[in-house]
Predict the 3D structure of the following.
Amino acid sequence: MKYWVKKELKPPHGKVYIIKDRCKGCGFCIEFCPQGVLQESEEFNAKGYHPPKLVETDDKKCIGCGFCSLICPEFAIHIEKEEEEKDEKAD
């Protein structure tokens, strides 16, 4: 039986950019991240708050959904989706 999808599907991946000095430590991004890859950091920003940090493991990785950037009231998070490199083999 032939399937219309020939190669293995891989989950999407995203890169998180956090503007630490904009963060006011509300924790919305940490609480509502569907993958659970954001955690409160130990460091302080210029305002005296603990900004989030990205903690990825082999099991949990950012999928680039962008929900953290949508829910952040201070616009302190930006997500960039990473495209997979296409491996085209010459036949």
